[in-house]
């Protein structure tokens, strides 16, 4: 079981689909990530976009810590169903679940302004595919939006498109978290 680390829902558990290739972000990494985001004021009142949402742990953590809303995008049907069950179990009303590929969602979401985008793609996702998705973000980012990419620590740095400026990264064992600003 995965649990919400902090905020209003801190300590509550969520379920992750087994056998679907979903790899929930560890408690340690989520705590570090959300401490960093909280210290920069990137969560409170934010419109959050959780791409490759898996169990929904990242978006739910953001809502628990004061995000105004979260949109979960997940193409795997079982995983999207688990997100829905987690949202209902936690009583989160400011959530929207979109069963779609990330690229298809971003192609039709232009004009929406997200303040915080969390990308936790499957580690096998190729660098060209990740670069393509990052290039599609420009039409959905608010001014000064924060973009977070979680990858394997063996993966190269993402290729940031024009409009996204890398701010740094942190390595936690097998996981690296990359930060960029729009």
From TrEMBL:
Catalytic class of the enzyme: transferase
Gene Ontology biological process: rRNA methylation
Enzyme Commission numbers on file: 2.1.1.-
Alphabetic keyword roster: Methyltransferase, Transferase
UniProt keyword Transferase present: yes
Superkingdom of this protein's organism: Bacteria
An example Gene Ontology molecular-function term: methyltransferase activity
InterPro entries: DNA_methylase_N6_adenine_CS, RNA_MeTrfase_RsmD, SAM-dependent_MTases_sf
Entry-linked CDD domains: AdoMet_MTases (cd02440)
NCBIfam families the UniProt entry points to: 16S rRNA (guanine(966)-N(2))-methyltransferase RsmD
The protein's name in its UniProt record: Ribosomal RNA small subunit methyltransferase D
Source organism of this protein record: Nostocoides japonicum T1-X7
């Amino acid at each position: 079981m995965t649990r919400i680390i902090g905020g209003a829902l801190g300590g509550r558990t969520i379920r992750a689909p087994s056998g679907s290739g979903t790899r929930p972000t560890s408690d340690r990494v989520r705590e570090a990530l959300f401490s960093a985001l909280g210290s920069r004021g990137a969560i409170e009142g934010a419109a959050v976009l959780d791409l490759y949402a898996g169990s929904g742990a990242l978006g739910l953590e953001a809502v628990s810590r004061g995000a105004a809303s979260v949109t979960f995008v997940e193409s795997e049907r079982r995983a999207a169903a688990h997100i829905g069950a987690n949202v209902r179990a936690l009583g989160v009303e400011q959530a929207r679940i979109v069963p779609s590929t990330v690229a298809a969602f971003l192609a039709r979401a232009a004009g929406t302004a997200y303040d915080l985008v969390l990308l936790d793609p499957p580690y096998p996702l190729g660098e060209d595919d990740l670069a393509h998705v990052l290039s599609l973000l420009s039409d959905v980012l608010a001014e000064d939006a924060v973009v977070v990419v979680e990858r394997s620590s063996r993966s190269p740095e993402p290729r940031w498109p024009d409009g996204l400026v890398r701010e740094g990264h942190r390595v936690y064992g097998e996981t690296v978290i990359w930060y960029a600003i729009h």
